[in-house]
Amino acid sequence: MALVSGCSWVGLGDSDRKSTASRVSDECRWNRSGCIYEGSYEADERDYAEAEARRLNQAEMARLRRSADN
Fold first, then answer.
1. Which residue in 13, 26, 54, 57 has the fewest CB atoms around it within 10 Å?
2. Phi, psi of 61 (to 5 degrees)
3. pLDDT of 9-20, one tens digit each?
4. Rounded to two decimals, what is the model's pTM?
5. Is residue 39 in a domain?
6. Is residue 18 part of a domain?
7. Residues 20-37: pLDDT tens digits?
8. By C-alpha distance, which of 4, 2, 1 is closest to 55?
9. Does the residue 61 lie in any domain?
10. How far apart are the C-alpha atoms of 70 and 64, rounded to whole Å?
């Protein structure tokens, strides 16, 4: 099983989440090692991390598709 890592901030409102997630994503793009968590997970944290990585990957694929269509 491959686990793709993503970066996000938890607990922000929807309006703040997009701009903050975009900024954090940009930071991760330039410094990937700062976004990779190598410690152990707590009980539900691994499931959350996998779901969040899946969500971020789907959002990036949608963005790439939109930019390819233009």
1. 13
2. -60, -40
3. 444 444 555 566
4. 0.44
5. yes
6. yes
7. 666 666 777 777 777 777
8. 4
9. yes
10. 10
